[in-house]
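[step 3/7] fold_predict: job queued, chain A
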Amino acid sequence: MENLLDDHDESGGAGGIPLIVLTRLETHLVDELIQDSPAKRRREATLSSHLMKVARLGGYLARAKDPPPGNTVMWRGFARLTDIELGFILGARLVGN
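[step 4/7] structure written:
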């Protein structure tokens, strides 16, 4: 858990690409909150897939014919993710494990 609370990973590999925008804790939380379909789980996690999950937190439905998410939806998603992250950090500190 301590390594999730650290800031950005400096790895330059393909797995580190979502870490350009999100911290390791944020990517972990988004992956836990928004589950991928079994076909998508086998593929590599990308920045666009994580940003789509953030948009879904902001209310984006991600239907096939929907346009890309806008600024308001992304802002709402990041605001909600920040609240979830703060709650996770405070909960981890209160439990003390």
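[step 5/7] annotate
Confidence is low (pLDDT under 50) at residues 8-12.
The two ends are 9 Å apart (CA to CA).
exit 0
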